[in-house]
Amino acid sequence: MKTFITSLIIITTGFFTEIYGQKILTDVVLTYNISILSAKGEKQIGSALNGATLSLYLTKDKSRSEMVSTPGTESNVFDNKLGKGFILKEYSGQKLMITTTADNWAQKNLVNSKLNFDIDNSLVVIAGYNCKKATAISADGKTYTVYFDPSYSLINKSYNNAFPQLQGLPVQYELASGNLIFKYLLTNLNNAAINASKFEAPKSGFRIMTYAENQQLKKGE
Prior knowledge:
The chain has helices at 2-20, 102-108, 110-113, 211-220, and strands at residues 23-25, 28-38, 53-58, 62-68, 72-79, 84-91, 94-101, 118-126, 129-137, 143-149, 152-154, 169-177, 180-190, 207-210. By secondary structure, it is of the alpha+beta class. The chain has a single domain (23-220), classed as Lipoprotein localisation LolA/LolB/LppX (outer membrane lipoprotein receptor (LolB), chain A, Clam). Residues 1-19 have low confidence and may be disordered.
């Protein structure tokens, strides 16, 4: 009986070590390099997004995704606690701020949140991280491939273009659309406090419209 109880304690301890052994990332900055490839894996020379970077600033309740490319910069900011945020678009000298509600944010990220991933539990090393491979196909036929490290856990899973279904840190992810593959590779992880100004809306210099108004504008284009 004593042996059984001892074995049970070992098994239980092992289980909780596996769960709580994850490195919990709260205040963290993740930087990804973006590249565009052909379906054969060849880099698309001259693409405006090649060499672009995506930076994610995450806290427990707030997030900011910031993509910087040759055409310009686009940032998505959201406060989970307040249920509101904004999108900043700065292209060709034009500066636009689009306000978002919790419903707008959910609509914007609906595709990612509904992906049904198949996970390969074998490990592959990418950029020094031990990753599992997850694949999914969206309703409109796009293929998503995500390599994630299950030893890390992001406490905020509501950032722009998150994969909340995957229990780990996305290290590399690819979106195959038509004959092109959009590839994001994690190049830096900085687990440090983030200045609150990163999540504040600009007070001037931007044309302001609501998310619904912007959607109507897109339909008219």
